[in-house]
Design goal:
The chain contains 11 helices and 15 strands. Helices cover 33% and strands 21% of the residues. With 363 residues, the protein is of the alpha/beta class.
Length: 363
Amino acid sequence: MTGLSLRPAAECRYDAVALGEVMLRFDPGAARIRTARSFDVWEGGGEYNVARGLARTFGKRTAVLSALVDNEIGHLVEGLILAGGVDTSWIRWCDFDGAGRAVRNALNFTERGFGIRGAVGVSDRGNSASSQLRPGDFDDQALLARAGARWLHTGGIFAGLSDDSAACAQHLMDAARAHGTVVSVDLNYRPSLFADDPDGGRARQVFDGLASRTDVLIGGFQDFEERLGVPGSDGGASDRERLEHYAGELFARYPSLRIVASTIRDVSSASIHTWSAHAVERAGSYVAAQRFTDLAILDRVGGGDGFVAGFVAQLLDGGSLQSAVDVGTAHGALAMTTPGDNSMASLQDVLGLVHAQGATERR
C-alpha cells in the first residue's frame, strides 16, 4: 500500500498534467556547442519530459501547463509537443513584440559529453514566457473540477525560474490537493537559476514551499540536505540507511508527504554510469530497484525524468511501490541510451529490461 488515494480514471480527462517550462533544445550531436555547424532540435523540460514519457511510453492521457510566445519558434515547440502525444490546449500564448524584449521562448543548448568530457548545458531563458506565469493564469476549476486530472507533477526547475513561477506552482498544487489530485515534485536544482542566491536562502524557501504541498517527493541526498536543510546521515551509512534517515525527517516535517524516492547515480565517466533508484513510503516500507552497473550512456539528459515517468505510471495503475521503482529505473536507463531529453523507449522495451531481457535482439 502506498497511501495514495487516486481519482477514478473515468471521472478525469487526464491521467496526469505537468506544470513546467518547455524549452527548444539545440543538440550538436557528437560535436561541441562551440564548434557546431548544425544542430538537431528537440523539445524538453524537466516537468514536461515526465508528461511526454507517460504519454508516449505508457499510454497515459497527459497535458502540459506552460507558456510560449506566439511566433514561429513557439509554434515549432508546440508541434514537437503535439508529436509527443501531450495535450497543448492549456498552454498560455504571449504576444510577440518583434524582438523578445519583454517575453521570449526559452532555448537550451546541450552537448552530450563523452568519456572524460562531461556533458555541458547552456540555457538562454531570461524573461521566458513560463517564468512570467502567475497564480490564476490557469483556470484550476476548469482543469481540476470540470476536466479532471488524477495527478499533477511539477518541480524545482519551474519553481526556480522566478518568484512568480514559484507562486504559480504553489497555487496550483494547493488547488490540486483540494480537488483530490495527487501531487508529485521533483527537486530538480539548477545552479544557473539561483546564481543571485549565494547563501541559498531563496532556494530553501522555494523548495520548502514545494515539499510542504506534495504527496510524492523525488530528489537526491544533496537536495534533501542543501535545499531542504535535512541533517546529514552517518557518513558510513548505506544507501538504504541514508534514504530512510532523510525520509524519516521529511515525513515528520511534511504531514502531506506519502512517498520519498531517489535515484542513485555513480559516474565513472560521461559515457559509463551506475544507475538505480529506491523509495520509502510513510508506512515504513523500503524498496530498491536492480542496479545497472557499467550502463553505457548516449545522452544523460532526461534520465531522471524517465525514472519519474515510469514511477508515476505504475502508481497510476495501482502498482506496488516495488513495481514503481523497477519500471521507473528501467525507463530512466533506456532514456539515456537515445539522444534528446525524451524517452524513445516502448513499453515492451521497458518491461523487457525489468524482466532482465536487456539488449536481447528482437525480430
